[in-house]
Design goal:
The complex is a heterodimer of chains A (about 350) and B (about 650). Chain A is an alpha+beta fold. Chain A is built from eight helices and 16 strands. Classes of the chains: A alpha+beta (about 350), B alpha/beta (about 650). The complex binds flavin-adenine dinucleotide (FAD), iron/sulfur cluster (SF4) (3 copies) and FE2/S2 (inorganic) cluster (FES). The site of one iron/sulfur cluster has 15 residues of chain B, from α7 and α8.
Chain lengths: ~350, ~650
């Protein structure tokens, strides 16, 4: 164990942790923009700077590890001034198109500017005419729009793709002297949308749902993704009775904030007009829409007839991987206890 | 004469001074290339102006443009701020800036310098701030008079402390960053731009870079060598297809290379990449030169160089003809006639004499170091009955001799060195390993006489030495203490005090000029020998040196041969000239206070246990795991900096 002092508070901690980790674990707030918990520090935004005794220059707290006896200050006038100036650099030609940006009210840049304030431009003439809503450019998958002018070059997307997904599709670079992200290896993209999920601003937005809503207009319902056996936790973002987006929860297993292409983008079918929402009974060559009672009675009657005439083993049940474990459990119970057969199978076995 | 200098905080202002002073902190050469005077230098530690035709504001603007070019965009202050710094300087250069602009520039430059992630952002504002500080009057005058700046001519290049001292000029910060970014194959491609021997250098390079690494001023240098090995092993271990540049169509010119050592192989590789057809003539049966027949397997497993890396070179169409000795089987001048150009990389393969009584009598048990290692590397013990070994010397060859001795079953191994441990030229890491394995060191001793019985060595007489005044190399000269002779009994005595060039390859060629050390004399700018069309590099030019230099010079010689065959006057590229300029200015400043709080120790490699490894030839060091390599790569500070000259 080593001892460090943060803002006058003595703290016992283990060596090898970063200043930011120790501060957060002890309820001390340091602003960050590029930092993402489960990745190696990116060190791009420089907003997490702190002062450390013995050094004239500020130290990036997300990168710098604690050493024994370190004396750290997280909120001095000088630091606040520097953080504010760094934000001003990000705002130099950031379009002020918040009113039409998907991310408004959930945007980390908005939050930080709100927190640290904005008094005057970093130097006269520095704020040009804000470039309003330049159209998005091509990303590595069609499910995502990239608005370069809104990008703060935090490189969360790049590193999440490298370190969490393991694909390495994206590269940070520059265009006309301005930092930008390039989908340099689109052939490696698996369209999982992890980059989208970590973008702190409206540079990456979801391009699937035609419907959008502000955070206060949405309700989030936690459920389990129906697509495969991993059972990732997802949150359905619902507005006006429609699912408009799928997000997830970083704190919850098994997926801890990650999703694949199906879980994240495969929700259109819910709103599809081709979906069956009422039971149908075939009569002659065509289908007739019926009530649930009628349908269930009809099926029960037919099953009973078959069982009486040919025995229970003439009936087999095939259930779906799209159903939950509980659904499947009840289904096989029904087949075994009510129908009386072991002829049960499941599409995932095929 | 220097008009103004502000290098490393030392301000020398000779403007309007009768008795000009010269700065001590910087030694700026007069010329960049013959006939091109350096009028000013802007760099990471300040500015130097030698000619009053230089407009500091214009140069600051151009420097800011260079910064914008070189800024990678991966951190906010420099990535976003560099553009704006240029905008403000542009206004100043046009004479339309306001006082607010000047203040804005000052605060912006200070912010970028304090908060950027790497040295581009941390150092590039320095010369700009110096212009604001020391040329404030001129700038104010210009603001009021609206006078535009005078456009000058400039050149710039990027360097780093580690990169500048690398004889192969590897882009170290870049390949380390690529490892950090989990782009291992990109990293290896970056390395291959400058050397075709990454796995070899990653194991046995003497790593001058690491003793010039800024991280060493924090808690320990970055493991530049081991990271290189990691990148090389990743490709080899995962059987990835080596990524090589597209070879252009054949140029139809043929080049003969003499010697398949590091110099010859490197020259051949880069010539082949340019589209030449290359034939290597090698007198032994295997490629690699001293790296194969000198360096033992426990440091460099045979397969790495002689199979893997040489196979890649052969894959480019390079032909290697083994068992052909130039000067005996084929004459050098015949090659000169039959080929469009010849490269000589024969190395320094014979042992130097110790100047000790009895060394040329042919006693059994008296075996020169390189001979000893050559036999062992060929699978035989040169003197199986002898069990006690004394090696004389303090360099890497001596270390290899002592450590190999255990591995062929010798029980008693001594090393005799005439200076003290601190002066040993061998890698300290290796001295430590040898000590762990049980080598007995005798410092401050020198052999005076060989003791012999029936034609066999039985011992050696040594005399104690004292360290006197420093000699030209800066090391203190050892002087014998009269009457302090003593005897060390031994069966085998191995001198390992240096090698000389075996000049027999020159048979029938009397025009070749040699230096007074009996090495080939070449023009340092062109690598050309005194015979037109014959080029040379490596140990046969420098005398016994190191792999990176032989390999790096081999590559540079390939560039010169290419120029020569295209009818261009051969000479160093601008990058090479900048490398030389920067090394005169010195990129690494060991007194710098690096503003990094540290606490991330260098990640060491796992080694086999001394008691196990000392008897076997298995590789001693186990390379990094990917996670270890990434953690180590994170320690690199990316010390890129920009140097710009006005001419
Ligand atoms: C024991 C030992 C250990 C060393 N350890 C290290 C180390 O750890 N790190 C390091 O950086 N350096 C080390 N060195 C130095 C390094 O090996 C040399 O600097 C390097 O090999 C020089 O390369 P070269 O191509 O100039 O010459 P060489 O490697 O000497 O190669 C010359 C080649 O030319 C061939 N040749 C010679 N004459 C003829 C001829 N007439 N006709 C045809 N072919 C000919 C030779 O057979 C040989 O293959 C070591 C050297 C020795 C001896
Ligand atoms: S796209 Fe988003 S996550 Fe990626 S660098 Fe830009 S702002 Fe950061
Ligand atoms: S070059 Fe260095 S200082 Fe500049 S943007 Fe890149 S990381 Fe930041
Ligand atoms: S920290 Fe990195 S860039 Fe700096 S000298 Fe060391 S290896 Fe080179
Ligand atoms: S959070 Fe530390 S640099 Fe961005």
């Amino acid at each position: 164990m080593i001892t460090v002092t943060i803002d006058g508070r003595e703290i016992q901690t283990e060596p090898g942790k970063t200043i930011l980790e120790v501060a957060r674990a002890n309820g001390i707030y340091i602003p960050t923009l590029c930092f993402l918990e489960d990745l190696l520090p990116i060190g791009a935004c420089r907003l997490c700077i702190v002062e450390v005794d013995g050094y004239d220059q500020p130290q990036p707290s997300c990168v710098q590890v604690v050493t024994d006896g370190m004396n750290i200050r997280t909120t001095t006038e000088k630091l606040l001034e520097m953080r504010r100036d760094i934000l001003k650099l990000l705002l130099l030609d950031h379009p002020l198109d918040c009113p039409i940006c998907d991310k408004a009210a959930e945007c980390k840049l908005q939050d930080l500017v709100y927190e640290l304030g904005y008094d005057r431009a970093i130097a006269e003439g520095s704020v040009g005419v804000p470039m309003l809503h330049k159209p998005p450019v091509k990303w590595s998958t069609i499910g995502i729009n990239y608005f370069p002018s809104r990008c703060v070059a935090c490189q969360r997307c790049v590193h999440v793709c490298l370190e969490r997904v393991g694909c390495g599709v994206l590269e940070a670079g520059k265009e006309d002297g301005t930092p930008r992200i390039f989908p340099a290896h689109p052939e490696k993209c698996i369209a999982c949308g992890e980059c989208l999920s970590v973008c702190p601003v409206g540079a990456l937005t979801e391009a699937v749902s035609p419907l959008k809503a502000r955070p206060w207009e949405k309700t989030k319902t936690k459920t389990v993704c129906p697509y495969c056996g991993v059972g990732c936790v997802i949150e359905l973002n619902v507005a006006s009775g429609q699912v408009i987006k799928v997000t997830t929860d970083e704190a919850v297993p098994p997926n801890y904030g990650t999703l694949c292409v199906k879980g994240r983008f495969g929700f259109e079918f819910i709103n599809s007009d081709k979906r069956l929402t009422k039971p149908l009974i075939r009569q002659g060559g065509s289908f007739r829409e019926v009530s649930w009672d009628e349908a269930l009675n009809y099926v029960a009657k037919k099953l009973k007839e078959i069982k009486e005439k040919h025995g229970a083993s003439a009936i087999a049940g095939l259930c779906s991987a799209r159903c939950t474990n509980e659904d499947n459990y009840v289904f096989q119970k029904f087949m075994r206890a009510v129908i009386g057969t072991n002829n049960v199978d499941h599409c995932a076995r095929l | 004469m220097i008009l103004f200098s502000s290098w490393q905080g030392e301000v020398v202002d000779n403007r309007n001074k009768k008795e000009p002073k010269s700065p001590k902190a910087i030694a700026l050469p007069e010329e960049f290339k013959p006939g091109e005077k350096i009028k000013a230098f802007f760099g990471w530690d300040g500015i130097v102006i030698c000619d009053d035709s230089v407009d500091p504001v214009d140069m600051a603007l151009r420097y800011a443009e260079a910064m914008l070019n070189e800024s990678c965009g991966k951190c906010t202050p420099c990535g976003q701020g560099a553009r704006f710094m240029r905008t403000l300087l542009e206004k100043m250069a046009k004479g339309v800036a306001t006082n607010d602009d000047i203040e804005g520039l000052r605060s912006l430059a200070t912010l970028i310098k304090s908060t950027s992630k790497c040295s581009i952002g941390q150092t590039a504002p320095v010369p700009i701030l110096h212009v604001l500080e020391y040329f404030g009057e001129e700038i104010k005058g210009r603001v009021s008079s609206k006078k535009p700046a005078q456009a000058g001519r400039y050149r710039y290049a990027v360097t780093a402390p580690c990169l500048n001292v690398c004889p192969s000029s590897l882009d170290i910060p870049k390949y380390i960053e690529e490892i950090r970014e989990v782009r291992f194959e990109d990293s290896l491609s970056t390395i291959r731009e400058m050397t075709c021997l990454p796995g070899t250098l990653g194991r046995v390079c003497v790593r001058p870079c690491e003793s010039n690494c800024r991280r060493a001023l924090v808690e320990g240098s970055v493991s530049i060598k081991w990271l290189k090995r990691f990148a090389a092993d990743f490709e080899m271990g995962h059987r990835k297809k080596p990524r090589l540049p597209q070879i252009p169509p054949s140029i139809g010119k043929r080049i003969a290379v003499v010697g398949a050592g590091p110099a010859g192989l490197s020259c051949a590789f880069y010539l082949a990449l340019k589209g030449y057809s290359v034939t290597i003539f090698e007198k032994s049966k295997e490629p690699g030169g001293m790296a194969t027949y000198g360096i033992p397997d426990y440091r460099l497993p045979r397969g790495v160089l002689t199979r893997y890396e040489v196979d890649i070179i052969k894959g480019l169409g390079v032909e290697i003809r083994y068992g052909v000795e130039i000067g005996k089987d084929i004459m050098l001048m015949d090659l000169h006639k039959d080929y469009d150009a010849v490269f000589i990389g024969v190395g320094a393969q014979t042992s130097a004499k110790m100047g000790v009584e009895g060394e040329d009598k042919g006693y059994r048990g008296f075996i020169p170091g390189v001979r000893y290692l050559y036999d062992i590397n060929n699978g035989m013990d040169p003197y199986p009955e002898g069990k006690r070994v004394v090696v004389v010397g303090g360099g890497n060859v001596a270390m290899d001799c002592v450590r190999t001795s255990f591995r062929i079953g010798k029980t008693d191994v001594h090393l005799v060195y005439r200076r003290s441990r601190a002066e040993m030229p061998a890698d300290p890491e290796e001295i430590h390993d040898a000590e762990e394995e049980g080598v007995l060191f005798h410092f401050l001793c020198n052999p005076t006489r060989i003791l012999e019985q029936d034609g066999k060595v039985v011992g050696v007489e040594l005399i104690r030495m004292e360290l006197g005044e420093p000699d030209q190399s800066g090391r203190r000269r050892p002087v014998p203490v009269p009457g302090s002779e003593f005897i060390l009994e031994t069966d085998i005595l191995i001198p390992a005090i240096g090698q000389a060039v075996d000049l027999s390859f020159l048979a029938g060629c009397s025009d070749m000029k040699l230096t007074k050390w009996k090495t080939l004399e070449v023009n340092p700018d062109t690598f050309e020998t005194s015979i037109k069309g014959i080029f040379a590099a490596g140990d046969c030019v420098t005398g016994p040196d190191v792999l990176v230099r032989a390999a790096g010079d081999g590559r540079k010689a390939a560039d010169r041969i290419d120029q020569y065959l295209r009818g261009i006057e051969p000479g160093p590229s601008d990058e090479e000239r900048f490398d030389r300029l920067f090394s005169k200015i010195k990129v690494f400043n060991k007194n710098e206070k690096v503003e990094v709080a540290g606490g991330m120790e260098r990640k060491e490699l796992h080694k086999l246990d001394p008691e196990v490894r000392k008897w076997i030839f298995d590789e001693v060091e186990k390379g990094y795991m990917p996670s270890e390599a990434i953690t180590e790569a994170q320690r690199c500070l990316r010390c890129y900096r920009i140097g710009m000259i006005a001419y």
